């Protein structure tokens, strides 16, 4: 997955290069240029994060052996959490704040996924990560 992710990341960088040059060349004020540059970098980072999340979910759907994440076995919990996600536009229904850290799959669970010693449910109990 990492190699596939790097390929997409490179494509995103190329995709942003020409519009970035055009937009920045039209900005006369240096402060406005910096703001525009920061905005473009933020958008690019969000796109890259989105691609990585999609790759993780696709691996889970394909059932590859090294993927250790699954939906909760309790269909009622899954249905309830998914309804909450729909009401909050994809943000964690268990959290008050709505920011990139609480967008499903939330930052907390992505960090837990990265921890090879973690086994358990995400905060909302929608996903389960097993060690094996």
Question: How does this model look, in words?
Answer:
There is one protein chain. It is built from four helices and three strands; from the N terminus they run ααβααββ. It is mainly α and 132 residues long. Strands 1-3-2 form a three-stranded antiparallel β-sheet, with helices on one face. Strand 2 and strand 3 (127-129) form a beta hairpin. The relative contact order is 0.11.
List keywords for this structure.
elongated; mainly alpha; 3-stranded antiparallel sheet; 4 helices; 132 residues; 3 strands
Write a concise synopsis of the structure shown:
This protein is 60% helix and 6% strand. The protein is built from four helices and three strands; from the N terminus they run ααβααββ. A three-stranded antiparallel β-sheet has the order 1-3-2, with helices on one face.
Rg: 18 Å
Give the strand line-up of the largest sheet. 1-3-2
Would you list the SSEs in sequence order as H and E?
A: HHEHHEE
Percentage of residues in DSSP E strands? 5-15%
What are the segments in which pLDDT stays under 50 over at least 5 consecutive residues?
none
Question: In terms of topology, how is this protein built?
Answer:
Blueprint lengths: L1 H25 L3 H33 L6 E3 L3 H13 L19 H8 L5 E2 L5 E3 L3
Helix pairs in contact: 1-2
């Amino acid at each position: 997955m990492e190699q596939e992710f790097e390929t997409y990341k490179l494509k995103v960088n190329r995709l942003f290069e020409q519009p970035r040059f055009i937009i920045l060349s039209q900005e006369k004020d240096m402060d406005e240029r910096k703001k525009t540059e920061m905005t473009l970098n933020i958008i690019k980072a969000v796109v890259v994060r989105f691609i990585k999340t999609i790759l993780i979910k696709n691996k889970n759907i394909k059932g590859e052996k090294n993927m250790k994440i699954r939906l909760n076995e309790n269909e009622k919990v899954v249905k309830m959490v998914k309804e909450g996600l729909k009401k909050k536009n994809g943000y964690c229904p268990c959290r008050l704040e709505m920011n990139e850290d609480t967008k499903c799959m939330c930052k907390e669970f992505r960090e837990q996924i990265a921890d090879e010693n973690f086994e358990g449910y995400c905060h909302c109990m929608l996903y389960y990560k097993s060690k094996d």
